[in-house]
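Narrative summary of target 7.
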Amino acid sequence: MPGKRVAADKESKSSPKPKQKKTAEDAKPSPAAKKNKTATDWASMDLSSEAKTGEGKPWNLKLSSWNVDGLRACCTKGGAEYLTHELPDVLCLQETKVKEEKLPEEMKNMAEYPYCYWLAAEKEGYSSVGLVSKTEPLSVQYGFKEGGEEHNAEGRLITAEYDTFYLVTTYVPNAGRGLVTLDKRMDWDPRFKDHVMALDKVKPVVICGDMNVAHKEIDLKNPKSNKKNAGFTQEERDGFTELIEAGFEDSFRHFNPDKVDAFTFWTYMMGCRAKNVGWRLDYFLVSSRLIPKLADSLVRDKVFGSDHCPVTLLMEKPH
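Modeled conformation, tokenized:
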């Protein structure tokens, strides 16, 4: 696998280190250390599913989404192996922080995913999104069609049209430390809602990505202390509510209305992932009329390589 080849290259360049005597205590990593590792234990994970749709049919479309927090860094931690284990029909990536010409080798010339679309921010090493697909979309749109130049320059939105649905992947602007970019976020929300509502009039829509908001108190560990912080302000939550009310459904909450401690993001600080002190920022939203086609909406919180984990949607392809 590509991830292993990179690891081998690194190993061959390093000089051998003298062996050190390990104590029994050294040999036993703490649970926190194990959880904060960057390498995913694929052997212990079963990513298969026999879930059925609301209509009792087997799913035949798997869509995945992952904020990789830098695609090159994620690949050095084995992140590209996620594709070979999950094998989604389409993988959407956010915060890739890379221009197409500087993609890691693992994400080039993929036989299983010949159709790849990348939208980089004008600013080097910032934001940026991507979409890799087994089948060719009918059309692909980058950014907003009209207006939203500031957002388009930051590489935040790809819309792929397939024969019976639209797939929209997005990396929503963060309101920033001290809410310094809340105004930018408030400009984004209605633009994005109008964009997906227009699509929904033509075909049903699947929206995925890092929405940079925990919608309800159940969607983060410490709601009370975060009400004035980016990702949980009333303005951001209201914007998300308005998107839902425009005719879309949060697929994870459809299947897990009361599930607590289900997060997709953990800051690297203070061992938050080991303690599961996190936020649910990554979503699959679907046009309400697709609900009967859904089989499951999954959080892959055992997959490492980023400060976010992937999310996956299983459904019957609309027809």
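The domain at 51-315 is CATH 3.60.10.10 (Deoxyribonuclease I; Chain A).
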